[in-house]
Structure formats: structure tokens, C-alpha cells
Design a protein that fits this description.
Length: 611
């Protein structure tokens, strides 16, 4: 096994990989951009290197800077996570040519599967069903028309380098052929530097079903069952689950075996995903993702197999130690992407500070994230701030736990898509598992999304502009906990036309929340200073000498910088006509004197701070 791994990524996936490293006793190296100096993956890693560049996201794409960090750290392998460098065969080849090991499929295998017509031909050779169409690029609109004549309209024209919906054009009749052919070529050229296109029969409402694969360097290929990712918005997955509610046992067996044959044919190693379209009880190969994916967690939950750990073990030359028959799908798991987005505003990215971040827990709940309360969500990177993965013994139990877990998830300070997820749990098509890849973009009623955000949305900076009524600006809101006859009530008090409260945030954070940084220098109400200036902040974690009763400061016996021993008098306080010596309990150096002679002090006020 490796002794030190560089993780060339950020966010939750960097943490996921580092956790697998720790489980294996492997040390971890993070890289970061200037915008990410204090990010979760940097906090977690054993060591970290700045690979900064002008644009934050570009830092993670800089081949030479990443390799140089690996050399400096003395790492012996690189894990790319997903996104950024993960599917870059050129970078994989550079790593292969260095003293570091690439934790992923070989650059050759990545290239064999990267071009769509090559991948289709390879799958056909392995007896894996592909969507009827061409396995060679088409070079003229006439060719498109003749393929369409053979299979019938509609057909899809796809860019050779395509993926994620870019460079996919649907042709519904002969008079659209010329225009769509040219558009597909232009898009291919623009997005992928490759104007080459090919043609497939277009399936109207397929499901997206993908099979998780693990393959070692000793010729063993296993599949870990499938995930259903049909709930997508504009080609972005939103909810994924394992197993697929759309497959029966027979189709499940056949699709899994087809995926194994396909990657074996490609001489593929490490983890990968074979994507299929499923329609009318048939499945068709779509593409291979040559990396770990966001949604691998759902597979981990139903198989009990640590996919990321196996990526490391396989890359280190180890052999898969389980047979295909040993892989059992147990129960059901659903992953909810917790994106900072406002679903009511066309899923626009939301930015802000995580004023509250309190994820759910308990049985069947897993949260993969790299943020904590107080963190700034900036918009420099993608909007996913966490993943909630819920499991149960079957889909029903999983759905019930999902409702519970999503209602427990407390996030304030910016809008997330939690309200959208809660809506899906009330949605008939989703609950029945009957939704197709069209469902979100074409069938779901926008008004229902707006209502969900109004009902469950977060109140914060990115609150939708139309969420409140016109009067709301004049309403001062406070939350109280009251006890009536021994029963606890949470009371929300609204006063119309009242002056705004000074700083509700600071008040409601009185108990301290465990969040570092952002809250650390806030003055807390139970330790309010005797000074008139409300803005005084108390620094450090040394002794705070406080007034034990309400009174007047008769004298101050210390100044900043003085050394004070335990029992020394720091102030004299007059209360109820008595003079009281206020003494230091532990002692230290005086860091702050917050009162002057003649000031009045309330019980609990901080008078002097020692460090
Ligand atoms: C298709 C298809 C229907 N028929 N191909 C979209 C992304 C790209 N990589 C493949 N995509 C599709 N290819 C044929 N022949 C429908 C889609 C498609 C889709 C696929 C998976 C998940 C969501 C989707 C949303 C729209 C279209």
C-alpha cells in the first residue's frame, strides 16, 4: 500500500478519499487555491500545498503544479476525485510517466472509452447492447437522413466528444436534418474541439441506469449492482438511488453482466461506471465514466463495499478479494445532493455564510461533506455543499427515513435545494419510482417547486425576493422558548412597526455553537461588557473576571500588560453600600480592561480579561 497520497481535488470528494486513506493508514496531501486556504479538505489533510492561480478553480487543473506538490510532499500516488483532472487522459499519462502512481484506469483505457463511436464499437464487440445507430462518425446530412430512414424518426445526433447533454441534437423529421447536423458539429467543435458526430435512434423517455464496476490488475472484474439516476435537471443529477426501482431481477442480472463484459473488453482497471439508457424492458449502453462518481455512496450503502478504498488497493496492485457471487445488494439507499441553489429561482446558485449548519444523524443516515458552520459558500466552485445518503431495509423505509433526515437538516444563511427534495418525497411519480429522465425538466409543475421553497425554504440572505409580504420589512421577529405548566413551547413573536433589534444573530448565538472562526470574536450576551460601547469584543480564551453583582466600579487596580496572580484584586466594586474586592481566580497577564472608575456594571459583566 502507498504511504502518502496526494488528493488532487477539493470539497466532499477530497475528504471522502482522505478518509479512505486514513482507514488504510495512508498519509494525505491536499492541494488548494487561494480561495480555499481554510477549506475542509485543507483542514483535514496531513499536509497541504498552495497550487494557486488567478482563477480559483483553475488551480486544481494545473498539471505541473499538482505534480510538483506531489514531489515536494514525497507522495507516492495521486487520486483525482471527480471533475477537474479525473477524466483527463493526458494528465493520467503524465502521472504514469512520473514517480507517482495514478489512482484510476490507465490513460489508454480512458482514451479507448472517451470517444463515443470507439466505445460503442468496443461494447458491440463485447456483446453489450448499444442504441441502434452508427459506430462510425457521419460526415453529411444525407447520411443522417439515411440512418433515420432505417430506424425511423426521431434520431439523436451526438458529438463524438460529447457528454452531459452538450452536443446532443434531436431530429424529429427530415426537414430538420440539415440544421441539426450542422448545430451538432458546431457544438462538438466548440465544446470538445471535435466536430465529429454520429447518429442514434432517439429514445423518448428512457431511464438512466448505471452499473458500478471494480476491476483489478489481475483480470478480475466485479460489478456492484446499479444506480438509478433518472432524476436529473438539465443533465445534472439531483437524486440517485440503488438499486433501480425500474429493473426486475432478470434485467438486473443482464445489465450487470453486460457492464462486466464491456469493461473487460476495454482492459479497464480501477473503479468505473457503465451508463445505460433503459426503456421498455431493454437496456442500451450510453457511455463509461472512467472515475469515481458523486453517487458512488449509494452503492457503498447497499453493498457494504468501500469503493474508494478499493480504488487505492487496486492501484497498489492488490487483488479483489471477493467473487461476483459474494456481492449482495442489501436494502435500499438514496443520495440527495445538497446544493446551495434556489429551486424557486430556476435553481440559481446561492451564496452566503452557513450561519447554521446542523446535518441530520441517526440510523440509516450518512452525510458526506467538507463544510462546517461559519464557512463561506462563495460560488467559485460547483454548488454542492454536502450529500445526504439515506438507507433502509427497503425503498419504503428509505423514503420514510429520508423525510425524517431532510427535516432534521438545518441550514441557515443561504438557500439550498432541501425544499425540493422534500417536495420529491411527496411526489407520486418519484415515490412510485416511475420517473424518467424527462420528469424534472418537462413534467414537474414549477408552482409546486415555488410552494415547497416557501414552505420549507431557509430564511437568509438568499431568500427569494417574493417570499415575504410587503409588510415584512416592518416586522421584528424574535423566537422564545417558554414553559407553560412544565411543557415546552417555541414561540415566534412578531411585532409590527417595532424598531429593529440590535443584533439578533449575536443574541441567538449566545450559547456558543462550536463553530470556529466566524463566531469566535462575537461578544456574547451572557458575558456582555460593562463598557457602554456595545461593539467591544472579548478576545482569547483566557480568564474573564466578571462582576458577581450589579454595582459601581470604585477603582480599577490593574492596567493592560500587568501580571496578575490568582487572588489578586483587579477592581473594587461598590454594591449595596459595600465595597467588594473583585479578584482574579487563575491569574495571568491583563489583556483587556473593559471598565473605568465610576462605570456601573451588571451582574455577569466582564471587567478584565487575562491571557
Ligand atoms: C440519449 C437519449 C435518448 N436517446 N440518446 C443526454 C446526455 C448524454 N450524455 C446522453 N443523453 C441522452 N442520450 C438516445 N439515443 C436521451 C438522453 C438524455 C438523458 C440521458 C440520461 C439522463 C438524462 C437525460 C436527459 C435528457 C436526455
Amino acid at each position: 500500500m502507498f504511504s502518502k497520497v496526494l488528493v488532487a481535488n477539493r470539497g466532499e470528494i477530497a475528504l471522502r478519499v482522505m478518509r479512505a486513506c486514513r482507514d488504510l493508514g495512508v498519509r494525505t496531501v491536499a492541494v488548494y487555491s487561494d480561495a480555499d486556504k481554510h477549506a475542509g479538505h485543507v483542514r483535514y489533510a496531513d499536509e497541504a500545498y498552495n497550487v494557486g492561480s488567478a482563477r480559483a478553480a483553475d488551480s486544481y487543473l494545473d498539471h505541473e503544479a499538482v505534480l510538483e506538490a506531489g514531489r515536494k510532499a514525497g507522495a507516492d500516488a495521486v487520486h483525482p476525485g471527480y471533475g477537474f483532472l479525473a477524466e483527463n487522459a493526458e494528465f493520467a499519462r503524465k502521472v504514469e510517466g512520473s514517480e507517482l502512481t495514478w489512482i484510476g484506469p490507465s490513460a489508454d483505457a480512458m482514451e479507448r472509452l472517451g470517444e463515443k463511436t470507439k466505445a460503442r464499437a468496443l461494447m458491440q464487440a463485447a456483446d453489450v447492447p448499444v442504441v441502434p445507430g452508427t459506430t462510425e462518425p457521419v460526415t453529411s446530412a444525407d447520411e443522417v437522413a439515411s440512418v433515420a430512414a432505417e430506424y425511423g424518426y426521431p434520431v439523436a445526433i451526438k458529438a463524438e466528444g460529447g457528454g452531459g447533454g452538450r452536443g446532443l441534437r434531436v431530429v424529429r423529421s427530415e426537414d430538420e436534418v440539415q440544421e441539426q447536423f450542422e448545430t451538432a458539429q458546431r457544438e462538438g467543435e466548440a465544446y470538445f474541439d471535435n466536430a465529429s458526430v454520429y447518429v442514434e435512434k432517439y429514445l423518448e423517455a428512457p431511464r438512466h441506469v448505471e452499473v458500478q464496476i471494480l476491476a483489478d490488475e489481475h483480470g478480475n472484474v466485479r460489478h456492484l449492482g446499479e444506480r438509478d439516476c433518472s432524476l436529473q435537471r438539465r443533465h445534472q443529477k439531483v437524486i440517485e438511488e440503488a438499486p433501480s426501482p425500474a429493473l426486475d431481477a432478470d434485467l438486473r442480472e443482464r445489465i450487470g453482466e453486460a457492464a462486466r463484459r464491456g469493461v473487460r473488453e476495454a482492459d479497464y482497471t480501477n473503479a468505473g461506471t457503465v451508463e445505460f439508457l433503459v426503456e421498455d424492458g431493454e437496456f442500451y449502453f450510453m457511455e463509461v465514466n472512467t472515475r469515481i462518481q458523486v453517487e458512488h455512496t449509494a452503492t457503498e450503502e447497499v453493498t457494504g463495499i468501500d469503493v474508494v478504498k478499493w480504488q487505492l488497493r487496486v492501484a497498489a496492485g492488490e487483488e479483489l478479494d471477493f467473487a461476483q457471487d459474494d456481492v449482495e445488494i442489501d436494502g435500499h439507499a438514496i443520495e440527495y445532493r445538497i446544493n446551495a441553489e434556489n429551486a424557486a429561482d430556476d435553481f440559481a446558485p446561492a451564496t452566503g455564510t452557513l450561519e447554521t449548519y446542523d446535518p441530520p444523524g441517526g440510523i440509516g443516515v450518512r452525510v458526506d461533506d467538507a463544510v462546517r458552520q461559519g464557512d463561506e459558500i462563495g460560488g467559485d466552485y460547483d454548488s454542492m455543499i454536502a450529500k445526504l445518503i439515506v438507507s433502509g431495509s427497503d425503498r419504503e423505509e428509505c423514503l420514510a427515513r429520508s423525510e425524517r433526515a431532510l427535516s432534521e437538516f438545518e441550514i441557515d444563511g443561504l438557500q439550498t435545494i432541501v425544499p425540493f427534495h422534500r417536495l420529491m418525497l411527496t411526489d407520486e411519480a418519484f415515490r412510485a419510482g416511475e420517473h424518467t429522465t424527462k420528469y424534472l425538466d418537462e413534467d414537474l409543475d414549477r408552482d409546486r417547486i415555488d410552494q415547497a421553497v416557501e414552505k420549507w425554504g431557509t430564511v437568509g440572505e438568499s431568500e427569494p425576493a417574493d417570499a415575504g409580504d410587503a409588510e415584512s420589512e416592518d416586522v421584528t421577529e424574535r423566537e422564545f422558548t417558554v414553559e407553560v405548566n412544565g411543557k415546552r413551547f417555541e414561540v415566534n413573536l412578531e411585532e409590527r412597526g417595532a424598531p429593529a433589534l440590535p443584533d439578533v444573530e449575536a443574541l441567538s448565538n449566545g450559547g456558543g455553537t462550536g463553530a470556529a472562526g466566524a463566531q469566535a470574536t462575537r461578544s456574547r450576551p451572557d458575558e456582555a461588557t460593562a463598557a457602554d460601547d456595545d461593539e467591544v469584543t472579548i478576545e482569547g480564551d483566557g480568564e474573564q473576571v466578571t462582576a458577581e453583582m450589579q454595582g459601581t466600579i470604585l477603582s480599577v487596580e490593574v492596567a493592560e500588560g500587568d501580571d496578575v496572580a490568582a487572588g489578586d484584586v483587579v477592581c473594587v466594586l461598590e454594591a449595596m453600600k459595600m465595597e467588594n474586592d473583585i479578584v482574579a481566580e487563575r491569574g495571568g497577564t491583563v489583556a483587556q480592561v473593559l471598565v473605568d472608575e465610576g462605570d456601573s456594571a451588571d451582574m455577569g459583566d466582564v471587567l478584565v480579561v487575562l491571557e
